[in-house]
Amino acid sequence: MTSHLKALEAYSVFILREAYAKLGRLGLLWSIGKDSTVLLWLAKKAFFGHCPFPFIHVDTNFKIPEMIAYRDKTARELGLEMIVHQNVKALEEGMNPQMGRLTCCKALKTEALSQLTAKYGFEGLIVGVRRDEEGSRSKERIFSERGEADFWDYANQPPELWGQFKTDFPKGHHIRVHPLLQWNEIDIWRYIEEERVPVIDLYFSKNGYRYRSLGCEPCTGKIKSEALTVREIINELENTTVSERAGRAQDQEDAYAMQKLRRDGYM
Amino acid sequence: MTENANDLGRNTLKLVVVGHVDHGKSTVIGRLLYDTDSVNQGLVEKVRAISAETGQPFEFAFLLDAFEEERKQGITIDTTQLRFKTKARDYVIIDAPGHKEFLKNMISGASDAEAAFLVVDAGRGVEEQSRRHAHTLSLLGVEQIALIVNKMDLVSYDEKVYNQITKGIQDYLLSLGLRLTLSIPLAALLGDNVASPSKNFPWHKGPTLLEALDALTKEAADDSGLRLPLQDVYKFDDRRILAGRIESGQVKVGDRIVINPGHKLTTVVSLAAWLERDIKEAAKAGESVGLIVEDEYYNRRGEVISLVESPPIVSDRFKASIFWMGKKPLIPKRRYKLKLATSETEAEITEINHLIDSDTLAEKPSPGQVGLNEVAAVEIALNRPIPLDLFVNHKATGRFVLQDGYDVVGGGIVASVEERPPVHAGFAKGVITARCELFEEYFYHLSESMVNKIKPPKPHYAVGDKVPLRGRSFLYPDSFDIVVFRDLVAIKIRQGEVADIVTFNDYAYAGLPLINGRGFGVLVHSEAEWLKAQEEFAAMTPENEGVLAGRWLDFNAYRHIPIGGDDFSV
């Protein structure tokens, strides 16, 4: 492994252990995608083969069906403690992307996450976001506080220095822990290759197309690609200037769509 | 190995770009990224659209200033990091805000860096935050500082202006004890001297911005001796694993290590890992590891593992330089939480010695408090001793943050520690301290056929404290005097309480039983014998140690060794 990947891995492990030592009830948001799957792998490394917290999947009911099958199979194989949650009320009331993409994201992802944070009393949610994904994530802290109603006070973030993270906060608030913040998309794929991390095969080309970023079926587009292996994906990424989330429709709704969603508690 | 061969030896340098507000930091970085095709198309198009909407030319700073508020106000609020690569090396480039109000965000970004570019506007020259940022960098331990004199177009590319600013910064850094690494002129907005040399300043023979990056040197891994602060102790299965990140030095299987506080000695048995392929014999600074050690002490987060010959200082008092980020000023006598490596404890600022003016670096007399963005030299007292180091010796265990309630309000570095005799488990009254092993339990462990020792939980006794008179392996009288020959200190125990702690000079034999620091009777029955014993122990050599012990000590007066352990088969 390159010294660069080794350093990223070591720092992420350090972050996971800090979260486990300092925060109360902890959960890891597993979206089935490549990033949170790498996170799962890093948790296994941090805790010597164990995962001392549950894995959480916010299921919008619109996920690409293969993702759900993969989730259940992997959870069974690895013996993961899984929490799957849906915003049942919103789904019963007929929420779907035609009612507005951002409205739908807010109901089925943000609100669903908020419901389950409250229900299980999570003090820490480990999330696989990265700085290079999009603007508002680029400005994140590693331990990022969410206040009343999961509000992110992004214009007034606390100092974070020398590996001393935000671990004291009022009851009812929680911390989003971001162990992958300093990783890039290509680091993720190089790590998957190096460590032979199993990932869902939606990332690999079928009939000339593949998913580069995974989300809900109606709002996630495929890219043209011939990449059949992890190595071919890496080669492709080394030669592209297209952004990773170009296929994610909710990002394109408005220049600051993600900032607004994330201010209100979106992952 | 599947990595490209040229990737293997590559290293990553973390660089922060600092300077006064509006001197063009984000533009410098944005232009560099743009001219080297280092940003994705989507972002470039997005920024082009936003710039066009407001009738602006392409705003390079928007490549980094992602928040709506930042773009609307044309100001960087928070720090961000992004990746950049040259032919020679990879970079993490950290953008930091220059506005005074966001100094805490600048510190968050810069605390991660190995080197800095200080950007100064040629037209406006060195301003308040230019110096403050340089000063802050020195406190953060960033010692490699390069100067970018930006917006040279505004001064008609005048070499004199450039030289004057360079001289000013050079002198300022010298008074911080730092050397200016290099200096370049630039007009970032126009791309002058960014990725290629500019003909607008033929007098500049030095590097372009792109070349200046590669002229910086990568910090070597910290090899100042092993420091491994404990994050946690795991017992998920039959392994007991001490987990933490190596901050400096290295550790390998077989190393004799000491865990502090408590001076717990043991040996590294193995380095644990989940996957077989990750199991190894040695690890170095920066690695997150799990140690399995020979002896099962009670271990907890905050302890520091080092090699036996170079332990950290264990202290509850030190002098420090601090920078204050709190909206409310620092006030002496207020209780703050101090976090140093993985230790956390209550702290009090006992003395503010002076403030340091960032403009002139002159010492200003203390007004009794430290305000927002001020730097001060202070004295700190903790409510318990923790392992720490001088910042100049070990960075990671020589720096700390201070918290008021939920919020980090200050950061600081350990400047000096009052030298004291080592106190492993002892008595203390002010500066008079003595080691003490009176209350340790010994028992004969059947299955191991050896005597084991259990350390008592409370390590510190002061005047007025009760001491345990009866244990499984000791029984002391209600009143007696402890004489610790190693430290020349006597402790008077009366009715089970510490009545006084005095040096031998101030001690008079009182006719009560004398017991030494390990719990053995001292065969003294008169003032004359006491003086004689003192004299002989003061002149003790390794050769006559046994003779003296035989003459003066009664090992069985107060102690016996019970049988214990876990092997009771009959």
Q: Quote the average pLDDT of chain B.
A: 89
**Number of continuous helical runs of chain B:** 10
**In terms of structural class, how would the helical and strand content of chain A be classed?**
alpha/beta
* Number of DSSP strand runs of chain A: 8
| Beta-strand percentage range of chain A | 5-15%
Instruction: Enter the CATH topology name of one domain in chain A.
Output: Rossmann fold
Q: Strand percentage of chain B, roughly? A: 25-35%
Specify the overall morphology of chain A.
Answer: globular
- Poorly predicted regions of chain A: none
- Quick one: biggest sheet of chain A? 6 strands, mixed
Indicate the CATH architecture of one domain in chain A: 3-Layer(aba) Sandwich
Average pLDDT for all residues of chain A:
93
- CATH fold annotation of the largest domain in chain B: Rossmann fold
CATH superfamily of one domain in chain A: HUPs
What is the gyration radius of chain A calculated from CA atoms?
18 Å
| Rg calc of chain B | 31 Å
The count of DSSP E runs of length 2 or more, i.e. the number of strands of chain B, is 33
Strand order in space, largest sheet of chain A: 3-2-1-4-6-5
Instruction: Look at the structure and give the CATH class of the largest domain in chain B.
Output: Alpha Beta
